Predict the structure of Tetratricopeptide (TPR) repeat.
Amino acid sequence: MPTRERNRPLTELLAAAGWSGGDLARAVNRRGRDRGLRLRYDRTSVAHWLTGSMPRPPVPELVAAVLTEHLGRTVTPADAGLGGGRRDDTTARPVTGARDALEHLVALCRRDDMPAYGEGGPATPYVWTHVPQWSPPDSASPHAPLAAAPVREMVDWFARMLQQHGGGHLRGGLLGGVVDGAGRLLVAASSGAADHCRLVATAQLVHLLGDVTEDACRSGLAQRYYWHALALARAAGDSRQYAITLRVLSVQALRRGHLDHAQALIDAGLRALGPGGDAATRSFLFAGRAEVLSRRGRYDEALGLLDEASAHQAEAPPQEGPFAHYSLAALQYQHGAVRIAAGRHEEAITWLDASLARRPPSEHRAVALTHARIARSHLATGGLDAACRHWSAFLEHYPQVDSAAARAALDAARRDLTPYLHHARAREVLRRLPRPAPAPPL
């Protein structure tokens, strides 16, 4: 039997961090819990990694993320000696051009849907070394709005279902829709230029596939779908859609603690949109940049940007479609999130309450996550009864949601309320919490 080679890079990183194997295991478990994963690693698990055992995705990414945060410098899975494993080589780089993007997209979707790879598709690492920049396409594509109508209907439906129920049960249907739409565009491209409207609608559908893949904790795979959405938006000459996807890539980087990368991505989005961009998209991008600045501790600048975002949102004309407008409820939620980062929980509660009041009850995912944020802010200000009230409301919506973010919120409720077992309302909420599902084999 061949002897595994010791993982020297991970050994050196642990020494630089001043961490034991148990410290790393606990940090990975916490980061996984924040993403809705129930991990049970310990120092023995880390000892196996140090002797050459390779954990399954997304664990290498989690290891890299916690080391990046602790050391204050970028650490990749490869830097930690965990960059191996089966991965999709057709998407190891950003793609350019409509035909290139469509061919790689179809290949990725088919591999994603192959049972041999198990749940979540191929092992695809998250990469934070590339910041796509907007440039107009070499030639304009023709406009045929009627041909895009079926794809736009799918975009509207999937976006609505994501807000209502989360991405858990949507990936299969979205994969099929993307493969079908991309295949039709490839046929059109072989006989001439693919039309602008179908390219944009397909870019939006692929963007949504990235959203539901991210909501399933497959960050590297989601990133590849976002890259394909960028390539299709560029081929269509649509800098607005390009900027929207860059903002979501920035959020993805921010969740992983890569602040420089997150800021570079949102700044690239603002450059892509340009000074003449529409008010709704400017509001969306300004809110995204405010979130990045708040994570850097630049709260006054962040709040100033949110004021500008609110002004742009107010002047935006009413539009139909998930990519055509930025809702006031979503912007108010961002106001709350930035104030939470600044430790201004009472102000955050006011904004989040306003956001909640504008959400229809059918948007179970958005409503549940807003209740969770309000509950945690109430607890931070000593309002245990109010926190229990909002956790109870969260639990009313939770059965309708299949989302890693909602599962992470559920775990937060358990952690937050367990110290208050002597309190009757806290005990009642804890009694109602669903039992944790068994941890997946990672």
In short: The two ends are 24 Å apart (CA to CA). The chain has a mean pLDDT of 86. Residues 171-190 form the longest helix (20 residues). Residues 102 and 186 are 7 Å apart (CA to CA).
